[in-house]
Amino acid sequence: MLSFDTLKEQVADGTVDTVLVCLVDMQGRLMGKRFHAQHFLNGAWEETHCCNYLLATDLEMATPDGYASTSWESGYGDYVMKPDLTTLRPMPWLEGTVMVLCDVLDHNTHQEIPHSPRAVLKKQLKRLEALGLDAIMATELEFFLFEKSFDEIRKGSFRELAPISGYNEDYNILQTTREEHVMRPLRNHLWDAGIPVECTKGEAEAGQEELNIKYDAALNTADFHTIAKHATKEIAWQQGHAVTFMPKWDQNKVGSSSHVHQSLWQDGKPAFFDESDPLGMSQLMKHYLAGMLKYAPDYTYFLAPYINSYKRFMKGTFAPTRIIWSVDNRTAGYRLCGAGTKGIRVECRIGGSDLNPYLACAVQLAAGIAGIEEKLELQAPSTGDVYQGETGMIPSNLRDAGAALQGSDMLKAALGEDVVVHYARAAEWEIEEFERAVTDYEVARGFERA
């Protein structure tokens, strides 16, 4: 991290000349402006502005209709970007550059925009605070690294994609040595940016990588995830490679996930731990996990926000298909980790690598809080092959997940009905855009034989 006074010194001695001032958009991407560092110090550190369409676009930056917050009729006005100076940090892979994350405020009232991802998460953290609890979380980032660059792949129409390795490299040291020209600077630069990287490793497919970051307070965790994902793309680009965080870029390859680990703490102690319980689970933890299970369909959209997200959910792939929990079982939607220890926690394995970490963390907390408030009873853990069975299924497509979101009274109460309506519209738009598309599959299957 970087203090404001240190930034002044670094600008004065010429070490820093650029400040990235960023918000996090609906898709979990960094959007913003590059400021001359001295201008930032002269006043932009207090606030700057952006178009309010930045929280109502899709991946292509299209401006769909149907959003109450912004439209052609209302004229696409401004939001205030308010730098959170506690997030000021160097970006060591970019020369002379530091960055800061912003809260997004209404131009007239200076209140936070409710559907801004950071605001959505902060609202749930305030609810926990009122209960005397803190959320400690961690996310895993999985992605694929490719031989060619982003530009080469784009100019080749995203065909003939070749991962950087030729075989499954799960935990493989020899193959990952060949990738250290990307992964070593990624680890080291993120560490120097104040992000507590634990490790990287080869994942369960050719060219698949995993980046692990140490657990922290929930808002920090979401910040770390977002910056790390951005850094992964930039550092790979600098080395002439492309990466993708698509959950399923090839039907014959395994998918990429983003597992979310979580626990609640009280007065600096793990509130999920009870040494008298056979598994070490406190009653609070049981209520929390029961809430996550009960409301999983309601919030699946925030774990899988695109059409492609649902291509991961297949039997025999280590991706979950059912809303069940199990003890240390990597195929269950919810895995109990650290049983019998103070490190006991829940790992939600549903989320894909394309999730927005602020939204994903927020809705899981909301479901857990509901479980606590409703004093829900936790079902017994599942055993054996948890792919078997037809009950408790995760929504299998975006349409079903969007419908569950629209009908969720729990999320409307927790996030605000306007926020639910906003993101439900985003789900609808993704479906509308996909339904207009003609895919390679359709052409190859029907061009001659239909």
How would you describe this protein?
It is a single chain. The protein is α+β, with helices and mostly antiparallel strands. It folds into 2 domains: 4-111, Glutamine synthetase, N-terminal domain (Ubiquitin-like (UB roll)); 123-441, Glutamine synthetase/guanido kinase, catalytic domain (Creatine Kinase, Chain A, domain 2). The chain contains 14 helices and 16 strands. The strands form 2 sheets. Strands 7, 8, 9, 10, 11, 12, 13, 14, 15 and 16 form a 10-stranded mixed β-sheet that branches. Strands 1, 2, 3, 4, 5 and 6 form a 6-stranded mixed β-sheet that branches. A hairpin with a 7-residue loop joins strand 15 (334-337) and strand 16. Helix 12 (409-415) packs across helix 13. The longest helix is centred in the middle third of the chain and has 21 residues, at 218-238. The mean pLDDT is 95. InterPro entries: Gln_synt_N, Gln_synt_N_sf, Gln_synth/guanido_kin_cat_dom, Gln_synth_cat_dom.
Q: What can be said about this structure in brief?
A:
This protein has 450 residues and is an alpha+beta fold. It has helices spanning 4-12, 37-44, 117-130, 150-155, 173-177, 180-192, 218-238, 283-294, 296-303, 357-374, 398-406, 409-415, 417-436, 440-446; strands spanning 18-24, 30-36, 48-51, 78-83, 89-90, 97-106, 134-145, 197-202, 208-213, 216-217, 243-244, 260-266, 269-270, 325-327, 334-337, 345-348. The chain folds into two domains: 4-111, Glutamine synthetase, N-terminal domain (Ubiquitin-like (UB roll), Roll), CATH 3.10.20; 123-441, Creatine Kinase, Chain A, domain 2 (2-Layer Sandwich), CATH 3.30.590.10.
